[in-house]
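Lecture notes, structural biology module. Today: joint structure prediction for complexes of three components.
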Amino acid sequence: MFAASSEAASAALTSGFFLENAWVIPVIPAVAFALIIFFGRRMPMKGSEFGILSMVASLVFSGGAIMQWIDRVNGAGEEQFIAPIVKTWTWWQSGGMEFGLGQHVDGLTLAVLGVVAFISTLVQIYSVEYLRGDRRYTHFFASLTLFSAGMMNMVVAENMIQLILGWEIMGLCSFMLIGHWWEEGANSRAALKAFFTTRTGDVGLLAGTSILFFAANDWTQKTLGVSGFSIRGLSAWALSGEPSHSAIVWGAAALFIAAIGKSGQFPLHTWLPDAMAGPTPVSSLLHSSTMVVAGVFLVARLYPVFFEGMDILGGSSNFIVIIGGITIVIAAALAFVQTDIKKVLAYSTVSQLGYMMMGLGAGAWLPAVFHIFTHAFFKACLFLGAGSISHSASHHSFEMKKDMGGLRKFMPVTFGTWVISTLALCGVFPFSGFFSKDEIIDNVGHNGYTLFMYVGLGGAFLTAAYMTRATYLTFFGEPRGAAAGEHHDDGHGDAHAAHDDHAHDDHGHHDHHDAHAAHDGHHGDSHGPHESPALITVPLVILATLAIGSGLLNAVPFGHSFENFTKWVEPRVEVISPTGLATVVGGPGASRPAAEEEGDGHSAEEGHHDSPCGKETPKDGVCVAPQLSHAEFKWSKAALSMIIVLLGMVISWVLCVQLYDRKNKALVGLTERNALLGRGYRFLVNKYYLDALYENVIVRGIAHPVSAAAYWVNQNVLDGAVNGAGNITRKVSGWVYRNVDQRVVDGTVNASGEAARGLGGFLRPVQSGKVNQYGALLFGTAAIGALVLVIINT
Amino acid sequence: MLLNQFLVLGAVLFSIGVYGVIARRNAVLVLMSIELILNSVNINLLAFSLRSGTPDGHTFALYVIAVAAAEVGVGLAMVLLMYRNRRSIALDELAEMKG
Amino acid sequence: MEVLSDHNWVLSVGTFLPLVGVLIMLFIPKGEEALNKAVGLGTAVATLAVGIFTMIQFDYGKAGEMQFVAQTEWISVIKSSYLIGVDGISLPLYFLSMVITVLVMIYSWDHVPSPGNPKAFFILMLVLQTGMAGTFIARDLILFFVFFELVLLPMYFMIGVWGGENRQYASLKFFLYTMFGSALMLVAFLALFFKTGAESFSIPYLVENGGAIAKNVQVWIFAGMFVGFAVKVPMFPFHTWLPDAHTQAPTQGSVILAAILLKLGTYGFVRIAIPILPEAAKEWAPWIGLLSVIGIIYGALGCLAQTDMKRLIAFSSVAHMGFVMLGISTLTPFGLNAAMFGMVAHGLITGMLFFLAGSVKERYHTLEIKRLSGMLKQMPRLGWILGFCAMASLGLPGLAGFWGEFPAILSAYQPADGLPVETFRTFMVVAALGTVLAAGYLLWLYQRTAFGEPTAEFAPGHGHDEDIHDVGTFEWIAWTPLLVAIVVFGVYPQLMFKVLDPAVKVALKAFGS
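The predicted structure, tokenised, for the full assembly:
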């Protein structure tokens, strides 16, 4: 199943059932979705069993595939190219173009697939408790399951069309889940905003796919026998030296716009914090760990295209690294002025996605992908922790300043997992974030993007500081508001006494914040803060464990033997014969053995280390990954970033204690007293006025004046023209009637009429109105006529 | 010759019909007179047809009969309406068409 | 043309069977409403059965050829003959017209619009059915024209009698607009006839001989057809009859109008204008493309300015048909396939949206977006269906709408040889922006009407509880096939593409593809 390579070191690659059938993984939740929709309501657990079972099944399949992939890699030579397992079936064809469905399974696929399946499973289990009794419980699970199907489909996608399919399904689910409690106007607006913003980016996806397809199709068909949508085809094409400069630049730029939209990069990040209006499990799954990394995944997946198109490692800054760098800083700065714990986490997510983007833009492919992996665990854990707090302690509020504080005593498990995840997020050794984030920063510097290395370090400082602030406000100090047992149901007149009724009242009002009819049910028993039940804490503990442990998969500091992730996931840069790129299946079961035997051994002669993949054109064969180098790990560099992180924590801690606990006069109200600080603060609170720009200027601009103008044109110009034509016709006809018809034509007629009138007066008596006389006249005339005839004929 | 007698019969019937149309006040009688005229024409048609040996006249006569039937139908309907409206079918009382 | 199949009666039966139903209904007294409806529906179902038989007998291996061809003398004085047949292009639309008629009749079972009189209403629908089906099978220009015009009258009466407050204006506008286009179209047909030697009106003959006409003459003839078809599509700037007609028409009229009537225009381009006059088509293609993308953006902007749900959906038709015309203007098999798919998808989706608008109107007695809210709460099923259709309409992959929209955009990247590539690539980007606007207005509509709490006016206990109920039985029966089709074609578009593809290639033979 691989390129025949005459090299002795290369062994036959192994495969296995799970690898060969990885396409089943997205199908399972898709089927479960249908089952939930049609039968969910009638099931004892209201459909959640289908969702959880399908997630577990997907997890098992993914796990199996991962194990088999590891075997495949371990069984191969050190530098040998590990062919992805590709299958494709014709989906539809039109006008000579073929569109396929299939799978493209390699290390990247499996890494992300594993994360999605794993976190989806945990979040669904968590949601059983978190949304217990919710009015649209079944819908919720249906959407979650469909989301997983879409995401997994995108991850295993063999071609761009399949990827778009998954991509858009995720967008739809995001819309449905953010708007889950659509009774509240703010939620439905957030849902709309999220969908609309990502959809704006998707223009780039459609356009980029089209551009790349037409640019690459001839080459891929000729060389590889696959269509220009195929991911491996595009990758090989991008590195073949064939592409015209403009096509690949435009294609990559267009696709990157889609990635900006989906992954919340500056300047399209504004939807992500608003998306926190959705239920917390949704924020945890979609809007932090999985869906929002889709954009990053896209860049990583088609890395050769971006590598060439964006001129990564080309010696100067490129679009991706700049956007990533800006995103890190602006999002981290915004996290400081948030009072809503989920918003802090949301901006943190945006900032972390910026790290991934920056890493990819600077040629640090593997650390970026590894950061997708580790970030998913600790960020999901943080969100679920926030959910746990709101569920059991803060009365469904996410306001840190108003309703939290001092919770560490009441919620030891939540607190513990939170702290672990926070340390991981900050990148403290030896938590997982350290191994990914520090590697990104390190490699960015190593690849010559020194400025962005400092941006990364600054981001690390900010991250440490804002997370310390959030932790302090939530778990330390004195309990406030709801956490202290108060109920401040502002804007919720019927207050607490009515709460229990809500649970039974389908038309019940909803709480201000992350409210749902469900939770009202357990208000009766517990008013004060307490630890959440096991269904919530167990996922937290599992995720926290992974927040510590997942970093060891690629613990560069511990030596080469710990770099398993690199070994399993990073594509090998070997020039291979085109036929060896992948197993191609022409139809169900019909494999093409020729592809396996045709290798002509070109790759044998090519040295691995000076592989031409990348900035040069390979002489023979193709390659699908650019040559990248890894930074040498140095404890000195790690120590520097550690110190920066600790500095951030300490400074933030001291300030928090002074500001929130001691109420230090020098600090409290500083923003009101100092004009410059105040302006900066307002700038941040208003989110750089980006929302104002989008909503008030662009959207309102299009929605109101422009569309109104267009409509005005429609009604007055176009329709006016039609009506005008009608009116003119009528007027012309009127004029013609009055002047031509009445005067000229009628004039003639009237003149003759005058003459006729005299005659008429003479003949009037004839018109007696009597039938008999008419008859007589008729016959008389006939008789005269007959006489005339007779006379003439004789 | 037989033809002459047919033509004479036709002429007589025609004249009676014309007289009826002109002289009678009763609308029904006028209608009957019209029938007479039409049938006199039929007789003429048949006579000429027999003489010439072609079926054209027969065909035409049949056609006339059909039209006559329709005409009587319409005519009687009018008479009926007339009667319903003014309780009389005297034609000389009808002068709405006076110019 | 030789007879390819022994079943060449099926098309004539399928087309004229509705008229038999009309004949029967003429003898049923007006008062027997149930009987009238039953006969009407029965006829439509029987017609559909013939349609299904046609689908079964159709030789999919030869979808590029005309099948079930029948030819007899008709008006020999002007050398027009009764020549009919279907190929892969006609078949989906021919069948769709039958399905839509049945579904509309089912819906009408308990939704006869005021002022009642189901007998006349059903008769008009049957006549419409004959006209629509006939247009799709006619292979002779005069025959085509007759059917094309036959459609006009029932629709005129439907809008004029059963329409909304402003129905007189709308129906007259519809009628005059279309007549205006038809007049030019007829002139173009006649010119075509005389320029090809006054031999025949049959399309196959004209396809063979049309290419020989001098190019500048072709361009003028094409212009005449263009106006005729563009009015029907409707393309910007000939679209202004559409919002009025749709808004004023009864639900059934809107559905038929959106699902089938608009396709008569685009079908005319694909079947007549482009194959017969390839040179002129090339000259015109950039302009058609330009008007299409203007239509896409303009229709979307028009939607955003609307305050009335039905009018919004009507304007969205302008945008969607813009995608269809963009696909056609590329003159590539891929683009034409996309356009044909888009036609059917738009028929299903927008037809469904009009059904929904009708049902909303029936329940709330208003379609003003401002006054509607919280539909999901009061009618969860209807609300979800509306959401589903909105998603399908904005081109979500996995639902039918996407396969009309995305391939059309894709095809614009590489139009047929000889067309200005850069221009079309610009069109592609503009059209892609149109998808964003589509998402904008549809989601805006959905958010405003379905989400949130019901407005005070329609809140429970304010006298509207009787009217506001969830989806009824007849609505389910009428809607389910459409909903299923939207999913099926979305998941497996090959079902339609495999029928279309060979026929489209034949239609574009003149372009060397």
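Point to remember: Chain A touches chain C through 51 residues (CB under 8 Å).
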